[in-house]
Design goal:
about 190 residues; mainly alpha; 3-stranded antiparallel beta sheet; elongated
Length: about 190
């Protein structure tokens, strides 16, 4: 099998059999894992956002919304990776579907980055400046507040991982394809 260095315009891109199995396994396991983590994060953010001492802050609705948006982007990114398994056929990958997957993952990644930045912009100063005018209003930094602060950051990082892995799986380099071909032939 010859392999051109340019992305073909045909509806399917031929890949070695070993790569097809690897793409299916990684897309399924990574998509299922990150999707489950995203769903768990959505639930934890909704519960923690209502019971932490910061829930009385006026910006709590905004910060909970942004944190939930970041976790929701991770959930949808994981679902997209699970669905991406259907783009792989015996010996080939669907070209338009792989391009669409990359766009979906990039959009979700950008949304997660924005949501995480907005969350940190409004949440951290609210905690850090609490009690400035009235010492009784001071919010102590507890492990729950630290965990709640790190959840959108973790969601963003895992969404970036999904983007990078999906790109490397569905758009492999010429050298990687040639390496797989050499392993299969000899």
């Amino acid at each position: 099998m010859t392999y051109s260095s340019a992305w073909p315009t045909e509806p399917y891109r031929r890949l070695p059999t070993g790569m097809i199995g690897t793409i299916r396994e990684i897309a399924t396991s990574l998509g299922g894992g990150t999707g489950a983590i995203g769903l768990l994060m959505v639930v934890v953010i909704q519960i923690a956002g209502r019971v932490l001492p910061t829930s009385t802050d006026g910006a709590n609705v905004l910060t909970m919304g942004m944190a939930t948006f970041a976790a929701g982007a991770l959930l949808l990114s994981g679902i997209a990776m699970l669905i991406a398994r259907t783009l792989v056929r015996t010996g080939s990958v669907e070209t338009k579907g792989a391009i669409l997957l990359r766009g979906v993952e990039a959009g979700l990644c950008a949304g997660a980055i924005f949501a995480m930045a907005a969350f940190l912009f409004f949440y951290v100063p609210g905690v850090a400046s609490s009690g400035r005018y009235n010492p009784q209003d001071r919010i102590e930094v507890t492990p729950g507040i630290v965990m709640y602060t790190l959840l959108p950051v973790l969601a963003m990082i895992l969404t970036i991982v999904n983007l990078v892995v999906s790109h490397r799986l569905f758009f492999p380099t010429v050298e990687r394809v040639q390496k797989h071909l050499a392993q299969e032939s000899g």
